[in-house]
């Protein structure tokens, strides 16, 4: 392979990686959580409060804590300023930045072509999570942490600038816990391996860095209580949200992430590479995160991408190119150009129409708008975020912020949703006057056929029902 051909392939590969990120950033999406994050963001801007009694969840038993307050407030402010196109722009900013971070991490030990290929596959592996939610901040911050530690394992120097990164992360999303996990794993791998083991002074510095990153999370506006909130959410979410369950290996995103994790050791075998302890630890953590939970697949992909680039570099046929100032400028310029194009699309007609959820529910929307404030509505779980955003004066039986509700309430809702024995208990307890449910759901049919609920309006996939004289 000639030098010019290799260079052209590297440029083409990086363009493909950017194109993949651009597609995720500007494409249409169906994200149920976007709506309630906007509602919470608007509430934060109006009240400047991050915790307290929730104004919309009448059946909550826990006060609400806005653990994702920074991206929620920023997004709500931008939406007020420019419209829903701001959501597309922020999504594009995160997706394109993720491509660049993956490429930069891979380029530390691989050439342009291998790094570009790994970045493209890596961002594809992240694809299922690249929806407009505060978790986008987590993916970018996680990639920054992996980049920092991939440099540290090579030169032994602590990256103290990670401390403000973790403070920002703590204000944005709960996956900062996995940033601490990967930091601890890298540190342990360095110490265990005699080849990479730092001296006592440097080991103490690196351990101090990890401790400082953990401590700074407790110094956000929410204080030390923030340290426990990710576990509160996880305890309730697994029963209702599919993303908190084990990863289904039947989609291109999981296959891309797992494919990198499998291809890397195969390439090591072919090239007879003897991996360092930190490489084995990084690969093991990548595979573990990818398999254990659907929502963690992007983290697994971010860990796997630079390993893949390094592993396939000897198979490219050329030595790794140097990291020049010209290449740095080209990477930055291409990122800026792609973001500028995404900005134009977001500001145009594509931005306001990118959100496809909940679809064409005009008749249901209009009927809900006519209901008096305080009306209790038995709501579809997925639709509840939109209900909070569009009709905040109504009182849903449950919503997507599961950490607010008791396990008993969530279990009762699941029985009702599935029309299982005892399904009417929730109706007796909450006394909803209306229900907004998927038209084809078992619960919608049971309410009409068994209890005589009447159809008020139907729009898209949803139907608004009215109780005959009371809930059951």
Explain the overall architecture.
- This protein is mostly helical.
- Helices cover 60% and strands 6% of the residues.
- It folds into two domains: 3-30 and 67-347, no CATH class; 362-466, no CATH class.
- The protein has helices at 3-26, 33-47, 69-82, 85-106, 112-125, 135-155, 162-170, 176-192, 200-217, 229-237, 252-271, 277-292, 297-316, 325-347, 362-369, 384-390, 407-418, 425-430, 442-451, and strands at 51-52, 64-65, 376-379, 395-396, 434-438, 454-459, 462-466.
- A hairpin with a 2-residue loop joins strand 6 (454-459) and strand 7.
- Helix 1 runs parallel beside helix 5 and helix 6 packs parallel to helix 8 (176-192).
Q: What is the approximate shape?
A: elongated
Query: What's the end-to-end separation, in Å?
Result: 75 Å
* Order of neighbouring strands in the sheet with most strands: 4-3-5-7-6
Query: By helix and strand content, what is the structural category?
Result: mainly alpha
Relative strand content: 5-15%
Largest β sheet strand count, sense and barrel closure? 5 strands, mixed
- The structural domain count equals 2
Name a few traits of the molecule.
472 residues, elongated, 60% helix, five-stranded mixed β-sheet, single chain, two-stranded antiparallel sheet, 7 strands, mainly alpha
Topology of helices and strands:
Blueprint (H helix, E strand, L loop, with lengths): L2 H24 L6 H15 L3 E2 L11 E2 L3 H14 L2 H22 L5 H14 L9 H21 L6 H9 L5 H17 L7 H18 L11 H9 L14 H20 L5 H16 L4 H20 L8 H23 L14 H8 L6 E4 L4 H7 L4 E2 L10 H12 L6 H6 L3 E5 L3 H10 L2 E6 L2 E5 L6
Parallel strand pairs: 3-4, 3-5
Antiparallel strand pairs: 1-2, 5-7, 6-7
